[in-house]
Amino acid sequence: MTARDQAIEQLLSGLDPEQREAVTAPPGPVCILAGAGTGKTRAVTHRIAWRVLRGDMRGQHVTAVTFTARAAGEMRDRLRGLGVSGVNARTFHSAALRQLRYFGTRRFGGQLPELVDSTLKFTAIAAARAGLQTSRAKNFDLTTEIEWAASSLIGPDDYVSAIAALGRDAPAAPEDVAKVYAAYIEAKRRAGVMDFADVLAYTADLITDHAATADQIRSQYRFFVVDEYQDVTPLQQRLLDAWLGDRDDITVVGDASQTIYSFTGATSRNLLDFTRKHRNASLVRLVRDYRSTPQVVALANQIIGESKGREAKMRLELIGQRPPGPAVTAEVFADEAEEADMIARRCSKLIADGMNPAEIAVLYRTNAQSQAYEEALASYGVPTVVTGAARFFDRPEVRQAVVALRSAAKTDIGAMPLGEAVPAALEAVGWRPDSAPSGGAQREAYEAVAAIVALSEQFLEHHRANPDEEGPDPDLEAFCAELSRRAAEQHAPAVSGVTLASLHAAKGLEWDAVFLVGLADGTLPTTFARTETALEEERRLLYVGITRARELLQLSYGLARSSGGRERRLCRFLAPLGLGGFPRPTDPGAAVSKPRERKKAKVLDCSGCGKPLTDARDRKLGHCEDCPATMDEELFERLREWRVSVAKQDGKPAFTVFTDVTLIAIAERCPGSDSELASLHGIGKSKLDKYGPAVLHLVNGGEVTEAIAMCTSEE
């Protein structure tokens, strides 16, 4: 066996039969239907490596298109690990922009239009010129609609008839939207700018209209791989067709059951029709789920098993490969405030029990639901990461940290070993490894910088694991170069914190523990989903959310939006399943009542003014912010001193012992017994058993050292 044959055999050795079939399919059109957690990235990277090792082409001849910069970065990293370099792994827009900048200057007279990140102001200009009175919110809706039309290859002249044929709701009178759309295009032309849709359209035009450019691009890129093919828009497909020309060496990967971006113009039509378009295509189905426990997989199969429409004809029934795990739990809370508080409390407990915050996620249907969970988690001192917020390398604290590292590389710190140099350099921005705030925005900023430190450690480990390839240990300057590369590719490191994300933003991610919240009919599915097509997309959203969980999955909703509000029904996709903890209506149209054995949450009133308490922090303290209770400052300081020592001896963050809010409540109430202590928020049975005697000792005037010893003796 030759060295090449051995390398190929080693490459294929860890694949299951279906993955191996996908990897070794003959050159030409290949469609891989890959269910959630079935190893699609593994399959496509190994297919690329297999083609390169066989000698079909070099890595530089491959274009792999993904939908996020993070996914592109992960693909490049995996390919490097397989010994393949030079692959053009990018998003559609990144790949197109690179080609446009190289080939497009002649088309635009030597100067490309400037690419603008935000086109909102041009929509506002266009609306004014069209004689339409708008607000910022209305302009945002118009911008979204114009982006959808452009991605769907619908121009201003065809807009009115197109949305009528589709039955699509417009953000304004269709004729007015068409006028704004036309004025928007003119506003861009006058300003000499282009948007992201223009990048794709201009590149496709360039290849289609200029034979020399087409020949050069097609001779360079001979094999194409497209990930998440169910999310390709007509405009992206047009560019892909231009890249291919009359060739068909393309591998597409997708899952019709994860089609959730139709509002952007994405359509699963290209995936569904792939084997019809390419009659000689190989079709492979990946159904072995390596991500989730059988309990999670079973629920996912139940949900998607009831789907309808074209996508349902290509649904996959997943087969769980992991050992059994805990049952999926379901719970109804009195209202959304109680739901947020209890979910935050459970996240805090998981972290206190040793789970990494980065392995926990709270997922919801709309971004507006985020704030309640941000506040609730902050009140328990739990760090959070809000997916969909500012991009990692655009965060101010990250930019300051990178500047500090670059500056330090030119000083004596630059000569220190990398593991010492990075923390030393970051002291300039006030970051220290033992100075994590308890929660909130400051904690999120701290964890963002901590992610850079962790990345430096991974960077060093990678070099040491590949000494022949990478050379001696890298220094701070080399690490700064790595940060620059990642920033250019938007390949962000993982930040430690509980992830808060919409179901759309969660696509492509996974966690050990997932809380799916707000599962009330009208929120999921949204009230705007009026057609069967729209409702089926909402079902797929729920399916995507369920399949993000590896081990723990909890489903929940608040019976009312606020205390005493109108009762709501359970999500219609879940209601027929009879999950324990969720009510099951006998009539699908009937309102869902809370289980009888479950008591209404007690409405807490402020101890000062008597008004109902709705804020999570106020409920824990027992009074509103405007009616502060008298706190024993000396007791509070002794409690903090005790907490720091106990946390240090347990090897855990201080907030996992008690949060600041709980310490404040203790110092305000001065409980005199176990029952009084247990009545405070943040003190459950386990913490009462472990820390209760020490806390009561401090409340009664005992010494801090004695209280610490009491905890030590229990251990």
TrEMBL record:
The taxonomic lineage of its organism, from the top, reads:
Bacteria, Bacillati, Actinomycetota, Actinomycetes, Glycomycetales
Q: Which residues form the UvrD-like helicase ATP-binding domain?
A: 13-293
The record ties this protein, via PANTHER family, to: ATP-DEPENDENT DNA HELICASE UVRD2 (PTHR11070:SF69), UVRD / RECB / PCRA DNA HELICASE FAMILY MEMBER (PTHR11070)
Species annotation:
Glycomyces niveus
Binding sites annotated in the UniProt record for ATP: A34, G35, A36, G37, T38, G39, K40, T41
The family line of this record is:
Belongs to the helicase family. UvrD subfamily.
In terms of SUPFAM superfamilies, this protein maps to: HRDC-like (SSF47819), P-loop containing nucleoside triphosphate hydrolases (SSF52540)
Assigned EC number: 5.6.2.4
Which key words are in the record?
Answer: ATP-binding, Helicase, Hydrolase, Isomerase, Nucleotide-binding
User: What reaction does this catalyse?
Assistant: ATP + H2O = ADP + phosphate + H(+); Couples ATP hydrolysis with the unwinding of duplex DNA by translocating in the 3'-5' direction
Sequence ranges assigned to domain UvrD-like helicase C-terminal in this UniProt record: 294-551
Q: Does the keyword Ribosomal protein apply?
A: no
| Pfam families cross-referenced by the UniProt entry | HRDC, UvrD-helicase, UvrD_C
Q: Does this entry carry the keyword ATP-binding?
A: yes
Give the top-level enzyme category.
isomerase
Q: Give the matching InterPro entries.
A: DExx_box_DNA_helicase_dom_sf, DNA_helicase_UvrD-like_C, DNA_helicase_UvrD/REP, HRDC-like_sf, HRDC_dom, HRDC_dom_sf, P-loop_NTPase, UvrD-like_ATP-bd
Q: What is this protein called?
A: DNA 3'-5' helicase
Which residue intervals define the domain HRDC in the entry? Answer: 629-709
GO MF assignments: helicase activity
